[in-house]
Write a structure and sequence with these properties.
mainly alpha; three-stranded antiparallel β-sheet; two-stranded antiparallel ribbon; single chain
């Protein structure tokens, strides 16, 4: 099967090389011209907006931020009061109360809303990974180019003030992430033959709403989420990553400029090899490389901030002043707010639901334990890493962006003002970040495909081939088209997800109380 898959991928990946230039146009231009109209059409649907103060406010952002605010209040500011407990859970302080006992399973075949389901419900401590592994697995899909390129995009369009709204969105998003990952563990499924865990919004939307007598709505919402998840895996989890990786590679090493399709073919081949071999086979390597590169990135940021330490107070002043009294920025306050929230949501994915797919595989008897762990993600991703990137861009004065730069090249220029050779390190880090994120999102998309079309090997084959082809398209398309398509697909996932979180909120709150009571009992 693996040889057949490899040959199929090789054949299909060679197709773009056969595309000849037409009317003097490069392969990149042909791909971009074909993709842009599709991207614009999808954006017009997902980002339906209302005009406010001269700018368009996408209703999807209202849906996200209102949801995050609601869950923050409903869960009694769990993002703040549960922070310390979340760290203790990751450290394994409560492992003694999460293990032991027997898992409670239903029959292997169960009827849900009239349909026979070939998986079993897990209510015990079964799982495949630890709390720390679940956190790092989910972070590998979120900490990456959104923190490097996304922040630069927000600041170049919204000014320093966008950073404030990005941080606020991250803090509120911690509550959304807690609720969705708690439900992800509660409604996870295990294959009766392989013992493999399946979880995420598809399952708590379908099964959770079915338990409330809303089976039709649940099935429709789950199917819509799965479709958008596949789109998100092809967009933000694939095209955006390889697009920015190519930009940094080309600008740094001065090769393949204007030939993104060739870079895409190389990356697609590498991704294809990993997908064929399975994510687990490469995890031992990536779990060491990615944290190392993240550490290098943070260290470099600290070096730049240290060299400009006297400018840091003024930078925070610009962030706060720009957040509430923006000057010469299109749309004023609303425009800055939109940029901050949009890029934060794209980076940490709070409310999107994707992370619950990874967190569902954790070993625990208490769903809320993993919900608490998950709330650390937006804090690490947005409040810490994104803020450091923003400060680097602001203190070095690159937010003025007279050169018209955008994305990762703007961040690279900011670092290069202090560390002349850093663009080379950043180029390597960007490629590794992109590669890791693409692998993680290919898993998310594959799980969604299996949910929609069944667990047949042909389903996985078709998805993997399509995923690799989109690597090539992403490398060749323009940044504007890629960002628009990426945002549209990923943001669309929040519509059914947050609806499900509203309807199942009581269950998440009950699970949290159960876990807190168990901890209290153990500490007596």
């Amino acid at each position: 099967m693996k040889k057949f898959l490899f040959l199929t991928l090789t054949l299909l990946l060679s197709v773009p090389m056969m595309v000849m230039a037409q009317d003097g146009k490069s392969m990149d231009q042909i791909i971009d011209e074909a993709f842009s109209p599709i991207s614009n059409f999808i954006q017009s649907i997902i980002f339906f907006s209302i005009p406010i103060n001269g700018v368009n406010l996408p209703l999807v952002l209202v849906w996200l931020i209102v949801g995050a605010l609601f869950f923050t209040i409903y869960m009694k500011f769990i993002n703040i009061r549960g922070f310390g407990m979340a760290i203790r859970v990751v450290q394994g302080k409560y492992d003694d109360i999460e293990g032991g006992g027997q898992a409670v399973k239903t029959d292997a075949a169960q009827v849900i809303d009239g349909d026979l389901v070939d998986t079993i419900r897990v209510e015990g401590e079964e799982g495949e990974i630890t709390h720390f592994q679940a956190l790092t697995a989910a972070l590998s899909a979120t900490v990456g180019l959104g923190n490097i390129a996304g922040v630069a995009i927000a600041i170049s369009l919204g000014g320093p003030g966008a950073t404030f709204w990005m941080i606020l969105a991250g803090l509120l998003g911690m509550s959304s992430k807690m609720v969705e990952c708690t439900l992800g563990v509660k409604y996870r499924q295990i294959d009766k033959d392989t013992g493999k865990v399946f979880g995420g919004p598809m399952y708590y939307l379908r099964d959770g709403l079915a338990n409330k007598g809303m089976g039709g709505l649940g099935k429709a919402a789950a199917a819509f989420f799965a479709v958008m998840c596949i789109g998100g895996s092809l967009g933000g989890g694939n095209m955006f990553q390889v697009n920015q990786a190519f930009v940094q590679f080309s600008n740094t090493f001065g090769v393949l400029e204007g030939n993104g399709a060739i870079f895409g073919i190389i990356m697609a081949a590498l991704v294809g090899v990993v997908i064929i071999g399975g994510i687990k086979s490469i995890a031992k390597v990536t779990e060491k490389i990615v944290p190392f590169m993240v550490a290098i990135y943070i260290l470099a940021a600290l070096v730049v901030l240290g060299a400009n330490i006297t400018a840091i107070p003024a930078a925070f002043g610009k962030i706060f002043a720009g957040a509430f009294a923006p000057v010469a920025i299109g749309g004023g306050l609303v425009g800055v707010l939109i940029q901050g929230i949009q890029r934060a949501a794209f980076s940490n994915e709070a409310g999107i639901g994707s992370a619950s797919i990874a967190h569902s595989a954790v070993r625990t008897r208490f769903p809320a334990s993993e919900g608490l762990v998950a709330l650390l993600e937006p804090f690490i991703d947005t409040v810490v890493v994104c803020t450091m990137t923003a400060l680097v861009i602001i203190v070095t004065g690159n937010y003025v962006n007279d050169g018209g730069l955008g994305g990762v090249d703007l961040t690279s220029q900011a670092f290069g003002t202090v560390i002349s050779w850093f663009p080379v390190i950043l180029a390597i880090a960007v490629i590794l970040f992109a590669f890791s994120t693409m692998i993680s999102w290919s898993y998310y998309g594959e799980q969604a495909a299996y949910y929609l079309f069944g667990k047949s090997p042909i389903v996985g084959l078709v998805y993997k081939v399509v995923f690799c082809l989109f690597v090539i398209i992403g490398a060749a398309a323009s940044l504007g088209s890629v960002v628009g398509f990426s945002d549209a697909m990923i943001f669309a996932m929040c519509f059914p997800n947050i609806l499900g979180l509203y309807l199942l909120r009581n269950e998440a709150k009950e699970e949290l109380e159960i876990y807190q009571n168990a901890i209290a009992e153990s500490e007596k």
